[in-house]
Specification:
The complex is a heterodimer of chains A (312) and B (388). Chain A is mainly alpha-helical and 312 residues long. Chain A has 13 helices and two strands; from the N terminus they run H-E-E-H-H-H-H-H-H-H-H-H-H-H-H. Chain B has 388 residues and is an alpha+beta fold. In chain B, helix 2 crosses helix 3, helix 2 runs parallel beside helix 4 and helix 3 packs across helix 4. The radius of gyration of chain B is 24 Å and the shape is elongated. The chains are: A mainly alpha (312), B alpha+beta (388).
Chain lengths: 312, 388
Amino acid sequence: MSIRDQLSGLTETEEGRRRQSIGALDRETIAGYVWALPYLAAFVVFLLWPLFKGLWMSAHDWNPLLPSESEWIGIQNYVELMSDPFFWNALWNTIYFVILTVPAMVVLSLALALGVNRNVKGKTALRTIYFSPYVLTIAVVAIVWLEFLSTDFGPINYYLDLLFGIRIEWLTSELFAMPSLAITTVWWLLGFNFIILLAARQNVPGRLYEAARLDGASSWRQFRDITLPQMRNALLFVVIIQFIYQFQVFGQPYVMTGGGPSESTRTIVYYLYQSAFNQQSYGYAAAIGYILFAILVGISLVNYYVIGGNNE
Amino acid sequence: MASVSIEDVTKIYEDSDEGRILAVDGVSLNIEDGEFVTIVGPSGSGKSTLLRMVAGLEDITDGTMRIGDRVINDVQPQDRGVAMVFQNYALYPHMTARKNMSYGLKLTSDLSDDEVAERVQEAAEMMGIEDQLDKKPGSLSGGQQQRVATGRAIVRDPEVFLFDEPLSNLDAKLRVHMRTELQRIQEELGTTSIYVTHDQEEAMTMSDRIVVLDAGQIQQVGTPDEIYNEPVNLFVADFVGSPSMNTFDVKLDGNTLVGDAFEYTLSNEYVERVKEYASEGEPLVLGIRPENIVLTDDPSENTIQAHLDVREPVGSDNYLYLTMGDDECRVRVPGDVKPEEGTDVTIRFDESNLHLFREKTGRNVLADIEQASQASASGANSVATAED
């Protein structure tokens, strides 16, 4: 074989190898799409499609029986919402609920996580106990707390009566109804935040605290200068998730108060539900959904830039 | 700057699974002002625990620690006048190098911001990291992180530097470089330093004195030369030196050390000295370092026949692995001495290089003599160990 032949042979195999590697890359890409396909399909059918369908509905006086007969009304639903006192009341109720639940939940779960992270006895048992309410559905949680908070038969009022001679109308007075829902919610969801924050705390290397002790940092400075910055991403995650989650509160008022007394616990999603399924105003309900969506995007952005500021 | 005195210090961990663990067992040690002392020992020997007790990161179960004249047993870490460089640097990941270095100063001193900035700048220049001060640890190389960690200790202007295996995360070349750099800085500042390492080469090259620790007890305290040439027991002899010392079981029969595979005749003077402390027929261990054995072409008295199994070239030297009957023997010869593998060779070593240990206690027979003759002449430099 001449040198030239050998060279061309070499080039051919090189070429072949390159072609093969392109083929391999293609196969890998295709395999990637195939694996992602089931989720993508669900995403399109259950998220992307309803997202556009909702926007479309919100611009119509929607006729659920004959959708094609629905009348295009543009932003009329949104204009109407702006002057709907029930909507504003529901929005305010929701914000009130968020203010009652989110800060309490974050602070309490952080305190529990930091407490359990110290070498307390029965750490595993405590972890399980704090987390366990989270596995229950809202229906179960609501029924349990309905019993607890019952004005005439609940154990809380029983002991209040015994000790102080008072009975509080937890779920039937405008003053206490929303705080009662908030307490129920904090109890229900605390464990989820607790587990995330505990994991984040356990990921902070112990050496940093030793270095800080030698640097003369007090417990408070260690918390402020090491624990908090090191847990920032987890805290950000918990805060955003809870804002999104609590803004969509529905099950608690639906099961426990029916939105009452006198609409004092009717939240946005509850109002959306009533608009759609009680009053058959699907277009109007879709518009409420879109406003909620806009609020949540706004809040997430603010959280991200406030807590997540100068993120590396 | 200050001396450090450790008196009969003990550390016991209470572990719910394993019960009481004796990590440090009655250690006494005096470190002079400005001295560089290295603590070496295998993992679990208690060397880090001892250092962490000086730092105040571990409680002292029993005994007394002093820095200067001050008892520090119950003094908070930040008030002890110590600064520590950790093995993984323990830099604060979310702070810049500058903030890492100034953090402790701001918390513990009443210096103005300008003075703090000046001190940080000085330390950074000393460590050659002026350009890295505004970077966070994550964007620094391992070597740069090491320098920031050392700089953080320098800034504090402590009475005592504590180093906990500070170079073990660096690659070999950088490690050697940083070794000389740390020495230079210590000499420049003259700060008393306690340096923990498992790397005997670091210990030998950097220290004024070395403390060899095993199972929580001091085996020997001495200059690198003393540790290497006059190991007080088999543990120290085996731990220091690479490859480690050869040891052979022998018995003294008249003037001759009788081993399984060889006999070695001692001079009259040597035997007289040995016989003062070891009786005839007592089981002894003969130790000889690989670099003290030479190959010879002249089989005569005190030469030993051996079989060369493996020759391992390591650049400047060759390591020879020999067998003599059931005994194995390592020899270090210059790189140009290249006997054939699989051949028989003759080896020889000098009486002045051999070490004799009691088999029962592992104690160096001649170290016992020296210790006895010195009686309690000096405190700090004498050998200290568990009693036989």
